[in-house]
Amino acid sequence: MTKDFTEVLERLTGRDMGLIDALARHRILTAAQLADLCFPSEWAARVRAVTLVEMEVLARFRDDNRKAYRYTLGYWGAGVHAWRRGEPAPTKAAVALAIHQLAVSRKRGHLEGVNTFFTRLHAEARQDGGVVLSEWLCEDEAAGFFLGKVRPDGAGVLTVEGGAIPFFFEYDTGTEPLAYLAAKLDRYAARQPAGGHRHVLLQIVRPGRERNLHDQLAGRQFPFLIATTSIGTGLLGACWRLIGSEQLVRLSELGPEVRP
Fold first, then answer.
1. How many CB atoms lie within 10 A of CB 95?
2. Do residues 155 and 167 touch, judged by C-beta distance below 8 A?
3. What is the CATH number of domain 5-105?
4. How far apart are CA 178 and CA 202, in angstroms?
5. What are phi and psi of 197, to 5 degrees?
6. pTM, whole model, 2 decimals?
7. CA contacts within 13 A on the Cβ side of 4
8. Cβ atoms of residues 174 and 193 within 8 Å
9. Cα(151)–Cα(142) distance, integer angstroms
């Protein structure tokens, strides 16, 4: 167990620093998500994560012995993040409380779903070679575009050969009525976010619910493109359906020329 801050810094790699930054912003990652984000394999991610847990850079927990570990910032990881930002280091008690609150949060499953989308997109973009996920913002950062009046589940920018494709993201698990989701899209339309409107991408976990949303929004006009999918992998393929269209498109095609 590491006891000295200088020793921690000496043992951290550039990839570790990136991982600390990612967990500070996105709070929780599984080994599979770590691998998609910055490791060559899930095995390699798990091996390094165990070392970082032993150093107290990361902390981990799981619901029971059959579930995969979830990783978040430990005491030294939170301290390194604060040091890099010029902020006071949190106490061990504060870090322990944050870990406990995350572990028992009812919103944790939704957060993990959001993070799975972005880490999978990052991995597929890395494999594709022609696409880069050049920005990944958490809920609080995305809400800043609307001064907190609308809270997307996340936001990002895909960089492709033709330029940048900025988007807001919504992860729908089917726990709320479709009218609630439609009303949120209306709030997107009613407010001008900083930097202008972005495409809105919706990942909907059930295909039937995705079809029902398209039916509910049929004939509606929005000042931005809305595209939905109900798959969890192959996100860069032709799996996105535009509202108001039967056409399936790739994310790289969501440019000004693509309209519903």
1. 21
2. yes
3. 1.10.10.10
4. 12
5. -65, 145
6. 0.95
7. 4
8. no
9. 7
| Helix-helix angle 92-104:108-128, to 10 degrees | 90
Instruction: Reduce the DSSP state of residue 175 to 3 states and report it.
Output: coil
List per-residue pLDDT tens for the chain, 260 residues long.
557 899 999 999 999 999 999 999 999 999 999 999 999 999 999 999 999 999 999 999 999 888 899 999 999 999 999 999 999 999 999 999 999 999 999 999 999 999 999 999 999 999 998 899 999 999 999 999 999 999 999 999 999 988 899 999 999 999 999 999 999 999 999 999 999 999 999 999 999 999 999 999 999 999 999 999 999 999 999 999 999 999 899 999 997 544 44
In this structure, what token pair is assigned to residue 141? 């950062």
Coil, strand or helix: which one is 138? coil
- Please state, in angstroms and rounded to a whole number, the distance separating the CA atoms of residues 46 and 221: 46
Six-digit token string for 80: 């390194």
CB 165 within 8 A of CB 252: yes
Helices (H) and strands (E) in the chain, counts: 10, 10
- Two tokens, residue 187: 């709030």
Q: Which helix (H) or strand (E) holds 204?
A: strand 199-204
Q: Which tokens belong to 76?
A: 């030294």
* Dihedral in degrees, nearest 10, Cα atoms 161, 162, 167, 169: -40
Q: Name, in order, each residue with C-beta under 8 angstroms of 246's C-beta and a sequence gap of 6 or more.
A: none
Using CA atoms, how far residue 93 sits from 75, 99, 133, 159, in Å, is: 9, 10, 35, 41
What strands, in cross-sheet order, belong to the sheet with 70-73? 29-30, 70-73, 58-61
Q: Tokens 């978040």 map to which residue?
A: 72
